[in-house]
Amino acid sequence: MRSMKLGFMAAAVICALSATAQAGDCVRVAAVGDGMTHDLAVIMSTHGLANIIEGKGRSGKGPVHTKCEPGTFGTQCTSWQNACK
User: Fold this and answer.
1) Exposure winner among 4, 45, 47, 53, fewest CB in 10 A?
2) What is the rounded distance in angstroms from the CA atom of residue 77 to the CA atom of residue 40?
3) In what order do the strands lie in the sheet with 59-71?
């Protein structure tokens, strides 16, 4: 179940990154973070998101959205944000 969720999220991120450019060449980027506590999972997902955006040579635009749910070993959070060149 967990590997299916991670596979789905990876496919969603790949689709978002390969989507045609919107105004200003922006895409939606997402990252998943796990942690024993809710706060740790949020930190892992938001910092992972920032690293992905920076690695792609983009800058984040707008608010960072985060959704968390119980995971196998704690909490799993997904964060996403628009990123533009």
Assistant:
1) 4
2) 9
3) 26-35, 74-84, 59-71
Domain containing residue 44: 2-84
Contact 37, 56 (CB under 8 A): no
- Give the number of domains in the chain: 1
Whole-model pTM? 0.70
3-state secondary structure 28-66: EEEEEEEECCHHHHHHHHHHHHHHHHHHCCCEEEEEEEE
Does residue 79 surpass a pLDDT of 60?
yes
For 22, which DSSP code?
-
